[in-house]
Amino acid sequence: MALRGGFLCPTYRLPNPFSFTSRSRDAGRRFAESATAAVAGRRKRPQNVEGEFFVDHLCIDCDTCRWMAPEVFTRVDDMSAVTRQPSCEEERIKALQALLSCPTSSIHTERPTNKILEVQKMFPLPIDEQKIPGVYHCGYHSERSYGATSYFVTHPEGNILVDSPRFTERLACNIEMLGGVRYMFLTHKDDVGDHEKWSKRMRCERILHSGDVEISTADVEKKLCGEGPWDIATDLKLIYTPGHTEGSVCLYYKPLKVLFTGDHLYGSEESDLAFSVIYNQQSVSLQLKSIRKLLDFDFEWILPGHGRRVTFRDNQEKNSALEAFLARQEPLYA
């Protein structure tokens, strides 16, 4: 299978068949046993309600826990806090998933819990097994990417890691059990996280637009040039969407009608479409032009790096939402 649209086909190498070892199991046990010790030097935010879970003062307000476990975590005074303790096992599991995903390890339990070992095995998490089978949330958000979400996609022509989660041996083993990684697609330069560790561990080839290549990503195997589009499989297309950064690119998975947007476009906490002006590194007007380009693609899911997921009933609703968003924003940056 060739990478079409500007660069050559890589040679496919199967991932290393690493197996679980006593060392990785011991690491999981040590995680649970040291939960209380990890709190040393961290202050519990007074905004937390009393109970099992709490958030410390090193929270960076990345929003991860609030969309992963909204029943438990809320934004209070520009940081997350536990405003209601879990009331059932499902809510407790979601809170523990958020604990593992927190990029600054700012979520804690008052006492160590062995339940964390069970929750570790759940990642990557299926997003919607009925509507978008084979698309997963990796969890383990990286502080180096300011808590950005990364995704794992199983595909018959080779699995894809979209942006970089924090590297952990447990997650790596879980991903290998799902078939490993052929490509690591980096949407833009901000969310590359632990890309080198993942590349070495999975022996996958990284893809990044040349406009976003920096010293830390100089050895990326496949550098996109020009304006594309580029195909990495018969039904996976890379769409050039500059604006947030010079080399921002979205991944379009046509059969499932999913668009992985990085930081190009996302949902706000109020469920509206949004983009970041304050963190724009190139041109807001260019970013809006790139958003308008998305009217030409039929998708019903937006899976972003930062921000909330967005779903639409159909392409017509998606286009109506995009048109309304652009009508509000384009006059401001004409």
Automatic annotation (TrEMBL):
GO BP of this protein: response to arsenic-containing substance
Record SMART domains: Lactamase_B (SM00849)
Domain Metallo-beta-lactamase residues, every copy: 147-306
GO molecular function, one term: protein domain specific binding
Database matches in Pfam families: Fer4_13 (PF13370), Lactamase_B (PF00753)
Stated name of the protein: (wild Malaysian banana) hypothetical protein
InterPro entries per UniProt: Metallo-B-lactamas, RibonucZ/Hydroxyglut_hydro
